[in-house]
Amino acid sequence: MNWARAVPGLLFCICFITSCFTNKYVLSVLKFTYPTLFQGWQSCTGALLLWVTGKLGWVEISTFPRSAAAHWLPGAVLFLGNIYGGSKALSMLFGPDPYFWAFVHFCCVGSYRVFQKNFKSSHLSELEQQFINYVLHEDLLFMGWKMWKIRCPHTFINTITIDDLLTYSGILGFFLLLAGVKLKTGPSLVHCAVWLFLAKNAFGATSCNVCGMLYSPSTTEDETQHLLFHNQFISAVRYVGWKKERILGEYPDGKIILVLPDDPKYALKKVEEIREMVDNDLGFQQVETKVPSQTKTFLFISNDKKVTGCLIAEHIQEGYRVIEEPLPEGSEGEKVMFERQRAWCCSTVPEPAVCGISRIWVFSMMRRRGIASRMIECLRNNFIYGSHLSKGEIAFSDPTPDGKLFATHYCGTSQFLVYNFISGPRLN
């Protein structure tokens, strides 16, 4: 069993159960008079915790354009309807129509999920969407607190106790949100297939304009796989930034930074998140780096603060030369197609090499803009202090068909060096 993937689900269950019991107890103390009180308090606590943890760099929340917030406003209104309808259905003070408000609550919940699924903007992560929801709902705290002060008898509530309970409830709601977001980036999203079925609006293969994945919206399995990769992609490519960035190059369309094994944990966590996404995109199996202390990661950050390129390099001792085979006669397009499809072989005689590129990846919609070449140039200038690597000292790991074409173009020959980053030799 993969415990690393089971932990988010376990934490989500613990937070969910604890939050349910805490909320039930708070409502019982309030005698189901003003449930908007604790709902509003949760919103205020959640907004404050998201803002603080975002400033500290613990969660990825950055500034976003007002246009993105405006586009998300219908979702925030539906979330508000969810809270308001549920509160009126629970409360004993708002009239004799609890079933009507329960119906409103369920409609808002379903509509919110469908809207969230179809929301195409890449400017907002799920945490940022929830932050906007929280900010919009902070007025519930003011209204609920004011009405409670006016109409609730002070004899049955200890103000300090209820303040503590409301704060605990808000904190638990915050951790439940984080656990839920983490869970959605894992393979446990199959339960969302119902919402995917309701949200379908297209047939045939289509390419997502955010993550670039080609999938069929008419197939539930394809939709589920797309949602898995889409959420992982959005989470991985968002770059909040951190202090003391190691910038190697700045360009009109972005910059290249270097992350080393002794960098802060939040930087290494981001690199690991990107690596998992890159491995999924390239079709690699999830393999841990054998010698993390000798690994260097180069990231290309676009001007809109997204990771659109990644190069992971490590120290090696030897590589193997690709054996060149003559191409058949034909047009340039036919040769490229043949090159993509044919198998290739390499020599069994090792040759000296210094640097192994285990992964090189560029976002599909940003390719053919020189990003990969610029990352390799930065690698050659910065892999070994005071030394400039030649192209012959670099080996590529089991390149994909596109990777083989790129390596051939960059090295100026189809007989470049390769190595196996899973079982290949390493420096001691």
From TrEMBL:
Compartments (UniProt record): Nucleus
Keyword terms: Acyltransferase, Cell cycle, Membrane, Metal-binding, Nucleus, Transferase, Transmembrane, Transmembrane helix, Zinc, Zinc-finger
Record protein name field: N-acetyltransferase ESCO1 isoform X1
Membrane-traversing stretches: 99-115, 165-183
Reactions catalysed according to its record: L-lysyl-[protein] + acetyl-CoA = N(6)-acetyl-L-lysyl-[protein] + CoA + H(+)
Domain N-acetyltransferase ESCO acetyl-transferase: 351-419
GO biological process, one term: mitotic sister chromatid cohesion
Main location: nucleus
Species: Silurus asotus (Amur catfish)
GO molecular function (one): zinc ion binding
Family: Belongs to the acetyltransferase family. ECO subfamily.
CC terms in the record's Gene Ontology section: chromatin; nucleus
Stretches assigned to the N-acetyltransferase ESCO zinc-finger domain: 198-232
